[in-house]
Amino acid sequence: MKIEVWSDYVCPFCYIGKRRLEHALSQFPERDKVEVEYHSFQLDPEAAPTSRSIHELLAAKYGITVEQAQTMNAQVADQALGVGLDFRFDTMVHANTYDSHRLAHYAKTKGLEAELTERLLHGYFTDGLNLGDRETLASLAAAAGLDKEEAVTVLNSNAYEGEVKADIAAAQRLGITGVPFFVFNGKYAISGAQPGPVFSEVLDQVWSEEKEEPALRVIGGSAEASGSDGCADGSCSV
């Protein structure tokens, strides 16, 4: 079975959804026969460095107070704690993730995509690292088992731009405007960080129908996500 995941490294529900999927897979009898592949998606392709906090950016985007933004983020942090994640919104650094996605495609060629994905997410949500800084990215690549000098070369070039653009184009063809978005064997899709039992149900269903080819069925809403900051339904949207 192949699971394709469209996500972004600054999307809180992408990290939460990742953990819920991993938990479901840990209980799935055929987990050794499942391949998980990540695809690039950018929530904010125009993101630029800023001195404003994540709370301030959220408040400005939706015309709410900083205190209201802090409350919203605290609620997301509580959900993260439920799957063992430590989200520290006070220290998160707003950044453009384009280079991170290019680096992930490089990691994929070395068989270390999963390792780097986890490092990037933890680096942003827990360690307060700047994913727009290439030296930081190179250090995370090294921590994931990649050659740091090779990572620097990739980051300082245009390498893997085509792969990132192809992933984004594929998302557009599928009508994906919110992440995380999980596609199972091209048969079923889960939109958003749905509860763990939903992932388990789909795993069992797809496995039992392995030789069938029904049309793509979206579970958890349409392919288009919506909500406050795109996250009210367990997903983040553009």
Automatic annotation (TrEMBL):
Pfam family for this entry, one: DSBA
Highest classification ranks of the organism: Bacteria, Bacillati, Bacillota, Bacilli, Bacillales
GO molecular function: oxidoreductase activity
DSBA-like thioredoxin domain ranges (all copies): 3-203
Name used for this protein in its record: DSBA oxidoreductase
Coiled-coil parts of chain: none
